[in-house]
Design goal:
It contains six helices and 14 strands. With 368 residues, the protein is of the alpha+beta class. The chain folds into two domains: 168 residues, no CATH class; 180 residues, no CATH class. Strands 1, 2, 3, 4, 5, 6, 7, 8, 9, 10, 11, 12, 13 and 14 form a 14-stranded mixed beta sheet that branches.
Length: 368
């Protein structure tokens, strides 16, 4: 792997991707890393008059170029092909338990692309738990693999061996164009087992122009069973992503200007009491926790953007967290990440795309 690689220890990666905004200080919980998306309120568009205006060219691609309308005969054929793909990647699966169904919008509505879903599948031997697997019919690749429940024993292999086997699985599942072979991809390895789980996780982010996309590919390896525990491929089709990424990776709005836009918005809706909370906006790379799964500057490849029927370019955005003085003081004692909210500013236009704020004494504020 010749791209960037970071190995995170201790409490760093226990909330690798998503944080639940339910209080002023959000606890990091490894058990629901993969399955708990953050939902944030949407603000009315607000574009400062001084923001430079970039010429925007409509993308020439759409997700429908890769996922045509399938008739019932095509769906049945693709379900059978999905079974073959599962057996290729995970040959110990009991094929008789593969009862595939076509899901048009994804199980959690996370993806507007269709998937072929297999629930309650079992292994021939070695693991009594049931699993779920989803396959993308466009690429015919596994995009989700996860057990129902978690039961672990003592580690049988080393973290280093588990890391290598995890990367090998990602390559097997994705084929020759695997993100694990991309020299420009960013990778994080989490070998922390302080939560009692004998798990090593590896996560990859795709980049364009040196800026990461927010969606990712991630896999966990169970060192007690010596096998893959979970696998998620949230990336859109590479050609689709490339075709939708037409803007410059160089921001017209700076990090500090994005913060000022947010504070101007707070002043406009008269949330004066926030001034007394000592809000700070750390750059992610400056945090003690180093990289938490994404940079401040990201390509915002949300499903409603990538899978829109008449798509606009994927926006370049500043993703900025804030913390209160109380939250930072609590973090010194508890070790949880100081985190009171987040907002997202378009790095070219200055538009406030989303924002949220949570505080235990004042409640959750929707900045709409």
């Amino acid at each position: 792997m010749s791209g960037k690689k970071r190995i995170i220890a201790a409490s760093v990666l226990s909330c690798l991707i998503f944080v639940i905004l339910i209080s002023g200080c959000t606890t990091l919980n490894a058990e629901n890393i993969e399955n708990t998306p953050v939902t944030t309120p949407t603000l009315a568009a607000e574009t400062p008059g001084t923001a430079p205006q970039q010429v925007i060219t409509k993308p020439s691609v759409s997700w429908r170029d890769f996922y045509p309308e399938y008739d019932e005969q095509a769906k049945s054929r693709l379900i059978e092909e999905a079974k073959d793909e599962i057996m290729r990647v995970i040959p110990n699966v009991d094929r008789t338990t593969l009862k595939g169904k076509w899901v048009e919008l994804g199980r959690f509505m996370e993806h507007d692309r269709p998937t072929v879903e297999f629930e309650k599948l079992k292994y021939k031997s070695g693991d009594s738990r049931e699993f779920i697997i989803s396959v993308d019919p466009g690429s015919m690749k596994i995009v989700e693999y996860s057990p129902y429940g978690a039961q672990y024993g003592q580690s049988r292999i080393s973290p280093k061996e588990a890391e290598a086997k995890t990367i090998d699985f990602i390559k097997l599942a994705q084929g020759e164009d695997s993100i694990a072979n991309d020299p420009d991809a960013e990778m994080i390895v989490n070998r922390d087992t302080s939560d009692g789980r004998p798990i090593v996780s590896v996560t990859f982010w795709k980049t364009n122009g040196g800026v990461t996309y927010e969606h990712y590919v991630s896999a966990e390896y169970d060192m007690s069973r010596d096998k893959i525990e979970r696998y998620f491929d949230h990336l859109a089709n590479p050609e689709l992503l490339s075709g939708l990424t037409t803007l410059s990776p160089e921001p017209d709005i700076t990090f500090d200007e994005a913060i000022q836009i947010y504070e101007d918005r707070i002043a406009k809706i008269n949330l004066n009491y926030l001034d007394d909370l000592g809000l700070e906006y750390p750059k992610i790379d400056d945090l003690e926790y180093t990289k938490m799964g994404q940079d401040n500057l990201t390509w915002w490849d949300g499903e409603d953007i990538v899978y829109a029927d008449n798509p606009d370019p994927i926006p370049l955005t500043w993703y900025i967290r804030c913390s209160t003085e109380k939250c930072r003081q609590d973090a010194l004692e508890t070790g949880v990440m100081p985190y009171s909210g987040e907002f997202r500013i378009d790095a070219h236009t200055g538009e406030i795309c989303r924002a949220s704020y949570g505080d235990t004494t004042k409640g959750f504020i929707s900045l709409v």
